Each structure stands twice: as structure tokens, then as C-alpha cells.
Fold each of these.
Amino acid sequence: MKTFESNLVHRMLGGLERQFYQQNLVGSTNIVCVLTFEGRLDSKQLKSALQKLIGHHPRLGSAIIADPYIRFSPLPSMDLPYQESFEGNWRSVLEEDLHRPYPGPQIFLHHLVTDGSTLLLGFNHAVVDGLSSLILARQLIELYNGHVLSLSPSMEAVEDRFPKSFRGLQGWWKAIRFILHLAKLRSTLQIGLIVPTRSTGSTGFKLSDTRDLNDLARARGSNFFALLSAVILKSVYEIYGTGSESSLSLNTPVSLRSSANIPSDEIGVFLAGHLALYSISPTTDPWTLARACFDTLKQGVAEGHPMLLTLLARGSRKPSAPKIPTKPSPHRPTVSISNLGRIEPLSAAQGIEVSEVHAVSAQSMKDPFAFVVASYREETFIDLQFSKEKLNRDEAEALLSAVRQKMSFLSANS
């Protein structure tokens, strides 16, 4: 299995992988998985587990080079990508780690030691997506506990594993028709300044036991995530709208694992966006909007829209940096909301339980902010990452507060 993986280390990057690599030439799209523990972990055992994890996934111990095509290349030697800090809170550490460069290994472990341990497991987004970061975090704990891993090897790029109807000429014909569909989208609200993102801020809140709210949403024809999407869209409109009816474009990252028949434990970049446009006015009912979000996403996934967007979003095969935006684009997604779902409880690290789990990414050049929602045990964590250049922290906190108030009210009355 290791030999097969090592051979694939030399392969060229796929379309989405190239896109993230090229975005990192002008900014950052890195991912960090945050695990908060109820006690302190042993540093020596952590380093050993990290070394083993890299050994199991040679691509994590590789560099990405362009000669002239963009491909993985194994590193002949490297320092262990590990750091310890003993002060600060994990949000402030996260903001720095989100923009860490990855010239060598595609992984970095930052161990924040205070009353307990917080692990910030960072990755180059060209190698790992959000769900893959959670898989690797789970594997790191298993190795810390001295267990032996049985892994699915990393294989070819996701678009090369699409169903036949989404590959070759059939796929491109569908993609061209999809472009025409996207071209009909109306202009959307401009949010934040039109400047490139150089740094990402992070904030968030948690809701306890949202099962009743999810049950209520299902009874009304949607689900918790669709309701949260509606609340966020409504909050954005209330802050940035002009009082008349306006359009907001919603980007919902979707996992392609099922569509491309990807093993549940394989790591890689297996996600795509789903774009939809919604009209919002002062009288828009959140429950009606939630049903629209739910139905549109369900229908779009069934019709393969995320796979088509993957074909359209391919980065160039040559290492050309994307242009820095200087004016608003009417069709860009202005609101991005990722759903990590309900995360299965992680193993305790030799008796020390994991109390919180987050997996967030740095803001890309274009988008002002992105929400991430994940449920772990009896709590739901809602994180907001924002471009410090496009929005100031007070603006981000005002948006988060509006969402928190609405969700808390709905939760209390469910």
C-alpha cells in the first residue's frame, strides 16, 4: 500500500488541487483542524505520532513543485513540522497558522499548552479538504494511542473518478450548458471592501443540543443546516442591504466522496461548491427561505452541479498566479457556508477526552467571509472566518451576533 502511494506522490496535481495551489501564490486557502483536549498531552508521544502519520501519507511529506507542470515531489529530508506554544488562546494562534506557508511538508502540528492541550493541525488546502483534515486528526490520535492504522491509499484526482457521464466530451458539454446557466444569475450585494485578502480573522459561538431545532426544521420541510443558511442570508441582508429586494449568492461546499465513489477514509481534495441565488427582502420569512435553500441544494446535488463546477474551477496546468481582484464581480459567491455535519466522537488520547472540534480554512482572495458549522457530542460549533482586509473585526462580530441571536431565539422556541 505504501509503495502504491509513493508512486502517486510524483503525479501532477488535479484541477481543484491546482486551483488551491495557485491561490496560495497570492494569498492562502490553508486548512486547520483544531482539537481541544480536557488535559495535557505528552509532547514526545505527539511528535512520534506525527512522524508516523507523515510516514503513512507520503504526500504530506512532499513538496509541490512546478517544472513546468505542477506535481508532487518527495522531500529527501525535512525537519519535523511541529511547534509548541505556552500562551495565547487558540483563536489567535489559529489566525497565524491559517496563513502559514507550506514550502516543504504539507502538514504542520502546533501544540498549544495551557491548562490543557489544544492541537492545531494545519494543511495545505491543495492536498487536504475539511473532511480529510478530520480523518487525519482522528488518525493522529490513534497513532498517539499506539494503534496500527489500516488506510486507503491516496489515488488520482477527484475529477478523474467522476461517473462517465461527467467525463470527456459528455462532461464538457454539460459544463458548457452549466456556464450558460451561471451567466443568467443576477448581480448580488457587494459585501466589504474590494481589496485582496492577506490575513484571516476567526470568531464563533456554540449552541447546545440542537436536535430539537433540527426536528422542527425537518417538520417544516428543511433541516438545521438549511435553517442556519437562511438565518445567515437574512442577517447579511439586514446589515448590507438597502431596504429593497436584493439578491445574495450562496456557496455551499459539497463533498464529492459519494459522487466519485471515494473511500470514506481516503485523504485528498474531494469537495466542490454549489452556487445558488436567493432574493431577500425585509419581509422574507426564514422558514420559507430555509425550504428554498434545502430544496435547491438537494436538487443541485442530484443533478451533479458540484461536479460540473469542479470541471469549471480547474486551475491552469502551468504555475500562473491568479489575478488580484480590483473590482466587484457580479457572479462571485458572497456568502459561503460549509457543513461538516455531526462528527463521530474521537478516541480519547490515552484517557484524555476531546471536548471541541473545529475545521476551518483561510479566506480566499475574493470572499469576505465564510461560516463553518459542525456538531460534536451535544454541542454545535458555528465558526466565522473573515478577511481582515475586507471587513474589520467589529463588522464580523456584528454579523456573528445577529446570527447567534436569531439561532438562539429559534433554539429556545423549538
Amino acid sequence: ARPQVVHDVDRQKIPVRFVITSAGLVGTDGAAQSGPFDITFMSCLPNMIVMAPSDEIELTRMLRTAVLIDDGPVCFRYPRGAVAVMDLESHVRESIEVGKGRILVEGNDIALLGFGSMVQNCLRAHSLLSKLGIDVTVADARFCKPLDINLVRSLCKNHKFLITVEEGSIGGFGAHVAQFISLDGLLDAGIKWRPITLPDNYIESAPPGDQLALAGLTGHHIAATALNLLGRTRDALLLMT
């Protein structure tokens, strides 16, 4: 299907909406049903808009946003799982500005920039780190492409440490952030950046929580990465025991 997506859709800027279900890890459905590669594949296409919701309300908004885009292709991904918020009717006509992320929690010590479902685990990491006296910013990227460069630049200029988190393979959202901050000179300015992605191997069938732990994507793993960046290795080890 790749040639069709590239040549029949993206090159011609056809307004096709790609809805990618079972994105990331899928628990006991098994590795064959998981979707770790779509961010990397779709975001490398020049005309493709790539977004991912952090929760059910954002999914509703992105569906509306995709319907309104009529000048090129767009894709959005969402994970396997039950819907926790049932009252979504009031959000069905809400849309999102393309390429615009948002800050959910403001802090000063370290910034966590999540993409899609991993925003929730960034918020869990924030709770863990707050108990240790660490002031954390949590941001929801919403878009991998076009990347919200103003949001990323602001996070880099107002923090010494930045962690990107995604439930996708190497070469996806974090790679786009790295490309931007390197070309924009932000790495030269001193920002320390760490990506958290799915590992470069297949995660076999297991309950969702176990899969996330194997992949190093739980709130505890994100918090431990932050603690290591801050030089608090002992706290990181204690957190993971």
C-alpha cells in the first residue's frame, strides 16, 4: 500500500483521511496486530498531516478537524481500548488549529512533551515527580506534522531538560523534534533532550500494562528518565524498585 499512499494520495495532495486504529501496543491481541510504525511512515511524507489525540475528547476534535481539511491528506491514530468519557456529544463540532499543541501543566525544572496516548503517562510522571519536589511542564504535541515549532522552541528556552514520549517506533515524533531543535540551534544553546520511544524490537503478547513496562513507557519509566537527567540517579533507582 505504500506506493498508493505516496503517489496516488500524498504527491497529488488528495484529501484522504487515514484513520489508524490499534496504534501502538495492543495487549493480548499480539505483536502482529500492534501498530508501532505509522508515525514514522506517515510523517515522512511531505504533504501529510499527522496527529494523535491524548484522550477521547481530543479524538473527537481531531475527527472534526480531519473532516474540515480539504487541501491535502491527513492521518490520525488512536490506541486500542475502552472509552472512559461517555459524554462526547458537546465536543463533536470542536476542531483544532492545525499544527498547534498545548501546555497542560506548567513548571520550570523539566519539560515532558507527549504525543498521543503517552500524554497520559507524562501526566502520571508529573504526579510522581511532584512528590519529589520537581517542577514539571507537561505539553501535548497533538501534531507530529506540522510540528508546533513555537511550542517546542518555548519549551527548550524555558527549561534545561526536554523529554519527548511516544508510543511509536524510532524515527517518529521524537526524530522530528530532534531535527527541529538541532537546525534551530537549540541543542547548541544547551537544552538536554532525551527521546522515549518503543524499543527496536517486537513486544510480544501480554496485558497492556505489562507491555508498556517492557517498552519502558510507563509513568514510572518517564519519571525515572527525568530523574536521571536531573542527576538524581538514586531517586530514579528507588522509583523503579
Amino acid sequence: MSLVMGKAFVAGAVAIVVLAASLLGILTRPVGFLAAFWPANAILLGLMVRYPRFSTVSGWTGAAVGYLAADLLTGGDLGLTAWLTAANLVGAMTGVLLFGRMREDDRRLKRPQSVLFLFAVCVAAAAVAAVAGGGAARIVFGRNFLEGLEFWFVTELVNNLVVLPPILTFPGWKAVARELSWTRESRTTLLHKAAPLVALILSALAGVLVGGPGALAFPVPALLWCAVSYSVFATAVLTMGMCAWLLVAVSAGAVQLAVADDLFSASTSVRLGVALLALGPLTVASINSARTELLARLAYTASYDSLTGVLTRQAFLALGNQLVASSQSSPVAVMMLDVDHFKKVNDQFGHASGDKVLVEFSRTVGDCLRPADLLGRAGGEEFAVVMPGTGLASAERIAERIRKAVEGTIIAGSGDHAHAVTVSIGVSSAENGASVTLDRLLSLADVHLYRAKAQGRNRIAA
């Protein structure tokens, strides 16, 4: 029963999505013409690619029902509707098969060349759909097969290039909410973030007011500005909105292009122009995203120890100095930690075992700290911690918690060896906003650390 219900849900969900998208497209259909904007095929393709569980016999059956219902509800002929539905389905199926051969990063437009792969898939899907449905041109608007093939291909291509990217790059609702949380920003930052969007809206208005063939290019600078300012998903959404507006506005006459008298040829040219217009901002956004990700990886590599994942010495000192400087009106504490007898582990069991000890040790210490505390690797088996807003008594309690946690940890080494690890900790603090530097606190903690080791290790000195 659950299997049947699952298939029914898939079929019903896909049918509703396709029906709604098809009705939206039908609303943009001029008399005697195909729709100015037909998002249904691209939405179906994106749905099947992003959520493969829908790409089943039930899902495709639901899609067929959605297409048929939309056209029949608006007075379409059954035979023609079945023909158009078959063409829509084979185009979407072609896209699903080709996207399945692409890397996940390329499907999500995360690499500079990803937009080229997207374009290739959209061309192939549009070509297959055009071959299947081009013959309907003679019935719909009295044109021959080649003209119908051309018009269907261009229309399918522009819809795929405009609608697919937002679906493929959708990062999840939480990420979208974070990107839209502009209310927390300062007025200057808010104006900086909103400027590309405002420019895009103004360019759309300029197209209406000025008109002419150049109106199609008016949004290009603003879209490129959006591409270098926003995420790939946001750029894809804005590009989709602008391209959909151009397609509908030109078809409805809101944007006067002063094109040739042959509306059929003019529409083909306009749609191809809009399709190519969409490639620019998407390519720039993908390149910018890859660059940003690379810089983030480089920054992470420079700031975090590759073995333990804690801050490197340089990053720890930089951030630690900031924390201490900002704690002048409140107490701040520093700990120096040293893994006891670490050299013996390295000498007896090898560096691989030593590395495992350091990794597990840093994880254990990190679990004992608070989110505001700073943990870094000072060098070798020595680690350091800065604890803002912490007096000496509280710091000693945290140090004792760390000591007990480390003492109770058995770390698996290479082969059958296991290591019981202990730690010696030196603690220093500055109370009541005393003027002190991080270097001074680290030096004091280091003195206490050596005292703890001299007293027998596995203990705290402050």
C-alpha cells in the first residue's frame, strides 16, 4: 500500500507542478502562436534532475497528465495537445539523460565551464523537442516544418536557459533566508547590496520608455553587476525574471522593438537574443563563485592547521590579539597546553600514531571549550587557548575539565597500539580590565605550564 501511495504522490505532485506551469505559459500565448514564455518543460526537467526520485514512470505519467489537462482546460484540440505533450516530454527526457552524465559541480553551475555544459544540454534538449514538435507549426500557425523547427528550437532553448539555472542552483531555504537577511546590515551596506537590483529595475523601465531593437541589451550592464555582487542562485533568479519580462513585454507590445513586419521571424530573433543574453551573467556569476570559493579555501589553509583543524599559530596570534584588545573592560584568560610524553609516542610508535594523538587531542580540547574561546596550535604538541570574559577561577575550572577529558581518552594508534594521553596546562589571566598584551599572557601561561610539567605532569598550574 505504501508503495502505491508513494507512486500516487509522485504522479500527483508532478502533475500539479506541470499543470500550474503550463497554465502560466498559456496565459502568455498570443492568438495563433506558441506561448511567449513556457516554463513548464524547464521546470519539469529541473525537477527531475534535482530530485531523481520523481524521474520514474509515475513521475513522467503525472507530467503527461499535467500537460494534457492544461491544454484541454483552455480549449485545446485533443490530437494537437497529445502531439505537443509528446514533444515536451521527449525534450525533458533528453535533458535528464544528459544532465545525468555531468558532474554534480557542473549541474550546480559551480565551475567556470559549467554554463557551457548547461548550454550544450539545453541545445540538445531543445533540438530533440523541436524535431518532435516542429511539424505542429503547420496546424498552429500555418508554417512549414523547417520554420516550425526553428521557432520551437529557439523557444525551447530560451526557456531552458532562463528557467533551469535557478532550479539547479537552489541552495535550500535556509541559505536563501540568509541571503535575504538585509535588515541586519548597516544602511551603507544595504545600499551597496541593493544598488545592482535597483539598476536592473531601472534598465527594465528604460526598455519600456526608450524602446527600439537596443532595448534587449539595456539590462546587460545591470545583470553583470548583479553577477559580481550576488550568488549564482540570486543571479539566476534575477536573470530569469528579466528575461521572462523581456519575452512577455515584447510579445505584449510593452517594449517596442521596431522589428520586421514578419512577427514569426521577429519573435524567433528576439527569443534567440534573450537566450544568449542569459548566458553572460550566468557565466560571470559561475566564474565569480569559483573564484570566491578558491579564495575561501586559500584563506582556510592559511588560517587553520591542516592536521588538527585548529588555528595556525599566525592566525591564533592575530585573532587572539584582537580578543585581548577588546577585553580591556573585562577579564581574559589564556591557557598553554602540552601533550605529556608526546615525543615518546612518536619515537616508539611512529609519526602516524603521533598525528592521531594530536588530532584526537585537539578534538577533545575543542569539545570542552565555549564558542567564544579561541584554540590554536602553538607548535608541535603545544596548543594555546584565549578565553574572553573569563577570570582565573573560571579558567582553572575549564582547564580541569579539559585535563579530565583528555585523561579519560584512549586513542587508537597504528597497528594494535592504543595510547592513554594526559596533558599539562598553564593558566594566566588579566582581571578587571588590566592592561596586558597577548604575548605577556602567553609568556605567563608558558611559565606555569613548565611548572606543571616539573611537578609531575597531568596537572594544572596557575
Amino acid sequence: MPLPIRILLVGCGRMALGHANSLKSLPELGIIVAGVDPSEDARNNLKTQYGVSTTFDSLDHALANVEADAAIIAVPNFLHRDYTIACLEKGLHTLIEKPMALTLADVDDMIATAETKGKLLMSGQSQRFSTAIRQVKKLLEEKAVGKIRHVIHRRLGSGRGGDENSWFARQELSGGILPGIGVHSLDVLLWWMDEKAVSVSAIVQNIDPHPDIDIEDEVSLIATTESNAILNCAFSFHHQGGTEWIVMGDEGVIHLNSTRGPLLLNGKEQHIPETVLLAGEPTIHLEFLTAIRNNRSLAQASAQDVRKTMALIFAAMESGKNGKTVSVFR
């Protein structure tokens, strides 16, 4: 494909501007040719900060008038399915922000469209590209702790995404805490282990209820995988405490306090190469654009691969509602 790859940026809010900022480092590979957002202020921010002179207030208008090769979609979660399918139907390779969608049926519709149109569909699981996360993956591939038996994970803090005027504060628009932040952690766990979850039991709570915010603020879950490993996870908007991972194998333990903190193997600090990922380096965009350029499959975070993460997310949500253990693949 001729370079640079022409990108339609769908959404001009905070997340979209983060994509635009990363793409500045890859001008030889990709360039934003137009932006889409119903907010004039958001469109003007894209113009002012990143020099994107062509913008539209609707996706339909943009798709009818812009020559592009790819789309990066960063819009509210409830719009993900329809916007992704529209871009794929137009023939655009597509990078969709996480979570892919708010139901597994929608995820499957998106994957089916991508495969029918012969286009790449990538999920924005950016934590797969972080320094420490990739170093843990390397240690696990080297069997540094042997066979994984049990993983304990905690992700605490970050708030519920604003007041009652925020789309994230509405369950039907955002999906809540599991699609919002749990999707990153569960995707990393399944990627580390290179397997699927089999069953999950979850408890969903609202410890600090707000009359105008209807998403939950805490989830605890236990899942089992194909190899009978146990995943023990807690996610909270209410409690503060950062992120922690403990990976226990039959020959050792990996302990990671955060994605940028010290990485311990059997209690000894491990060197994390700075070349793996520098802060702000557009690694996920590099993978997306390089795959398009070279006409190859995605090496990481393809929609087909991330489907198993979404299946676990939705099974956990079902368990949280009915109070029963739920099979992930049925």
C-alpha cells in the first residue's frame, strides 16, 4: 500500500487526541486526513493541536467525502459496533478502542464484517504493548515460573469517569466497570497464558452509590482457564491502591506492582529494557500500520484474538447479575 496510510480519526475527544499525538511520531507510515465528531469544540481542538484541517460532524458525511485507507475509532462504547461496521463496509482497516463492543453478538458481527471485507480489525488493547507487561510475557514464554497455577490481580482507583452528564456514568452507554477497566487486565491475563477462560464467578457491588451514576464501582471475580489455572481479580473505582499482579507457577512467582513499577521474579528485581516501550511510544499504532503496509495479519490484539477476552467480560457480567458461576464458552 502506498505510504503514508490515510487515516480517518473517528472521535475527537480525549482518547482520540491521544491517538493523534502518537501518530505524530509515525508520519512516514500514517497521516490523519480527516476527523469526525459532533462537537465543534472537539473538532476545533483536533485542528488547532494537530493541524487536521478537514473535519466532519457525522461519520456518514465523512465516509461519503473522504478518501482513506484506515480508521481509528475512539467514541463512546455504545457506538463501537455500528461505527466499526460502517468503516469496514467502506473498505477501511479499523482500529477500535476498547472495549470492542457491549455484547458478544456485536463483537461477532464486527469480526464477521472484517473477514467478509478482507480488512484488519484491531482492538485497542494497549496494555499488551507496555514495557513490564511484555517483559512478563517473555518470562512466561521462557517458563521462568513453570506452569501457571494461580494469578492474583488488583486494579484499584481511577474513579467512575465523571458526573451524571458523562456517558461513562451510564450503564447502557459504557457497559460499566468490567468493559471500562476490567477489559485491559483480563486481556493481559489471557494473553500471558495464551488460553481461554472456561468459567467465571463474579460479585458486582456499588459501595459508594450516586443518585445520578448507575454504573457499579467494584467487582471481584474468580475464573478458571483451560489448563485449570485460577484467575483471582478485583477491580474498584471506590478504593485506591494502584495495580498489582502476582503470577504463581509451580516453579516460581512473578510479582509486578504496576505496569511501570519493579518487576520481581522469585523476589529478585528484573531488568526491564527501555527499548521495549518508552512512555508515549506509538507501538500499537506501529503494529496496526505496519500490518496494513505489509498486507499481513496482526501480530497482536486482532479482534479474533481479543474475542476470548470479551467472552470472559460478558460471562462475568452475567454472573454478577444472576449470582451463579457462568460458562464462558457455551
